# Entry
Amino acid sequence: MGLKTGKQVGLAALIAMAAPLVLAYSANGEVFELSSLANLYEGVSFDHDMHIEAVEDNCSLCHHHTAGTPPEDQMCIPCHKDSPEAESPACNSCHLIEPFSSANLSIIEKNPLLHHKMKPGLKAAFHQNCMGCHQETGGPVGCQDCHAMIEKGEKFYNTGQYAPKPGKGTGHH
Amino acid sequence: MKKLNRRNFIKGSLAGGIAAAAAAGKAKKALAAGGDFGGYPDSMGVLVDMTKCVGCRTCEAACNKEQGLPEPDKPFDDYSVFDEHRQGGLPRRTTEKAYTVVNRYNIDGREHPLFRKFQCNHCNEPACLTSCFVNAYTKTPEGAVIYNPKVCVGCRTCMIACPFYVPAYSYSSAINPVVKKCIMCYDTRLKFGRPPACVESCPQGVMTFGKRKDLIALAHEKIGENPGKYVDHLYGEHEVGGTSWMYLSDVPFEKIGFDMHLGKEPIISYVKDFLAIVPMVLCIWPALFTGFHLLSTRKQANKEEPPKA
# Structure
């Protein structure tokens, strides 16, 4: 029995309304659903636990110094060798979804002392960081190995069901 | 014919001298005004880091959609396009259907091929603009070199003038063929301060959008902070007077189709000194040669006058 039907429906509605707030970036156990950039492809199911094992607890391989471990790149050591764990080690706390928005560019302009002026955006950071390692370790490197293309992507790339019909070429270069 | 007495000689010399001085002054002003432009100070630009490009062609797809270009011959995730070559083994070029193309260069000793995105470089002092006699091109303060297809007469002089062979032509149109090229998404994005579609779409962050002068600093910083990684040259910083789109590479630029013999002078420099002298010449030479003619025929003219009684 439990709650009356009306209250059950009310509770369900409440949970349903809260869902969008967590879906954009949620952890399911320690598998992160990276979908804030999902547009032409599905979001990525990122198994964080598996990666912690893969790097043998060396967080800085992916998180630079923001997880509290000293960075790998020697160029970073002079400033960051004793850097503590950042407030949020998540990628999206530093790497923006829109790195070249006029808002962001004016922040850079107004802060001449800012050292990291042109950080890669979130999409670039994911690809550069992830694929760089995957290429060396034999991980997934193909586009669809990490995220399947959705119909919007097929339209964008003129592929799949939206591929140009064969023999339609103009013959021009 | 006036008699060449002392009075007339002095009058003539004074008049000629003033005319010559005026013309010379005008020419000097013209020469001075034709100084180097160097681009608008706050113009935007794009830095292309070719060490990051993996040849996914997302930028080509993004351009196609943003500019409303026709359907391509092959899907954008078809990489057999990298094997297409034109006469002479040249890689793909921009066309009326593709304002940007990515080409692959296989480099000995490099683990992966190098991919180069090719499109209009949006020069500070564009040769296309210089050569266009109907003034169809404009160098905008935002940095983009745009054109008005309605003004274009389809003469293709800009295609010859461009040192990078960028402008494409709508050969498919019989009635009204015009020139076609990348406009840095000016109408839909740059005007509003947003980066071009290709820059935003790139998954690898190959392209960085910002003020041209900041990008130059960033590029040299990257070269310095990654010793041995990049060739110590920012292509487009000085070439043909500077371009808004600049390139970093880990492979010598001449190996990947970049012309290293363009020099630092904008193309207009090869013609503007000559053109500035034209007004002066048109003023002085007629007067000068008329004077010579009259002087040399003076004797006959005097003989023809009937002797005064």
Notes: The interface with chain B takes residues 75, 98, 100-102, 105, 108-109, 117-118, 120-121, 123-125, 127-128, 131, 143, 156-160, 163-164, 168-170, 172-173 of chain A (CB under 8 Å).
